[in-house]
Design a protein that fits this description.
Layout lengths: L1 H5 L1 H4 L5 H4 L6 H32 L22 H7 L5
Amino acid sequence: MTEVGRQPWTIYGLLRTAASVSPSLTGSDVTLSLLGYMAVYLLIYPWGLILMLRLVRKGPVETSAAAPAIEAGRPAAPVLAPVINVMKGEVR
């Protein structure tokens, strides 16, 4: 399906494959692009995994029963407020 969106003329036989190839794109360009994507994903994946493990290890935030009720019925802070402490490296 992706190729139909990229080169419909080639897919449906209206344009030859040789005519639809980018002449300025070399094999080394493709290799560098692939290596760049691999490097970025090899950095992002472990970082995301570490962050998720910290969140799981920290567990849910406990609320005290003595806390005053909010008149509007909304939470006192944003839902993602505990994540800020984890990002700073503070783990309970």
